[in-house]
Amino acid sequence: MNKTFDRFASVAFLAIGTLFVIESRKISESAYGSNVGPDIFPMYLGVILVLLSLRLFYETFRYRTDGKAEKEKLDYKRFSVILGAAILYAYFLEDIGYVISTFLFLVIGFQTMQKGKLWVSAVISALFTLVVYFVFVEVLKGSLPGFPSWLGLS
């Protein structure tokens, strides 16, 4: 880890998180047919980003470097795969629904980070996707595009 980079990154993430919180207050607090307003996720994500950036800034004062910084090789292949998957996820979210698109994105992400154990990745992805969908749609009474209409499940 590079201490200077971590400090600059924590300040940048703190600014981005603060901007998320401030700008989310300008979004409507309620949406038609939903008890959860569109301002909730950006605001909570901003708060989480602020807290994590403060933690990172604090950690930069705690760890010591031995003087010789190791040059880590950047892994462009994994980064490109996850970036491409994220772009496709955002593009196809409305067409194939939250459940299928999130499941596929998580499986691709898990397999990109650590190959093997496809069944474990599939089970974790399915459980995470269904739990988040259930909590958001059933408990919080929010709205998400669950399944595509051509499946006839919604």
TrEMBL record:
Bilayer-spanning residue ranges: 40-58, 79-106, 118-140
Residues in DUF1468 domain copies: 8-145
Superkingdom of source: Bacteria
Protein name: Tripartite tricarboxylate transporter TctB family protein
Keywords (A to Z) from UniProt: Membrane, Transmembrane, Transmembrane helix
InterPro entries the record matches: DUF1468
